[in-house]
Amino acid sequence: MGPTLSCPLCGYRFGRQEALWACQRCPVARGCHLLRCPNCGYEWAEHSRLVDWIRTHLKR
User: Fold this and answer.
1) pLDDT on residue 39
2) Which residue(s) pair with 4 in the sheet?
3) CA 4, CA 28: separation in Å to the nearest integer?
4) Does position 12 have pLDDT exceeding 90, yes or no?
5) How far apart are CA 45 and CA 35, in angstroms?
6) Domain containing 38: what range?
7) How many separate domains does the chain show?
8) To which H or E segment does residue 45 belong?
């Protein structure tokens, strides 16, 4: 099993496969780049492109 994820809202710990299963019924599941907690349904971005860009440019 891959890395364990933790929901920032309810604290439920789950694997990436479980997160993909939680998104199966969503019509925009492909390419949305969000994670969905299978326990409470909360969605969040795993990585922020803006934060990644800032971190990259601050390292210079």
Assistant:
1) 93
2) 15
3) 24
4) yes
5) 6
6) 4-58
7) 1
8) strand 43-45
Question: pLDDT tens, 16-52?
Answer: 888 777 777 777 767 777 888 999 989 988 777 777 7
Residue 31 is which amino acid? Answer: G
Per-residue pLDDT averaged across 4-14, rounded?
93
Please state the three-class secondary structure of 4-37 as a single string.
EEECCCCCCEEEHHHHHHHCCCCCCCCCCCEEEC
Q: Which residues of 3-27 are buried (b: 16+ CB within 10 A; e: fewer)?
A: eebebeeeeeebeeebbeebbeeee
**SS3 call for 41:** coil
Q: What letter would DSSP give residue 1?
A: -
The CA distance from 57 to 47, in Å, is 16
Rg over alpha carbons for the chain, rounded to the nearest Å, is 13
More confident call, 51 vs 60: 51
Residue labelled with tokens 């099993």: 1
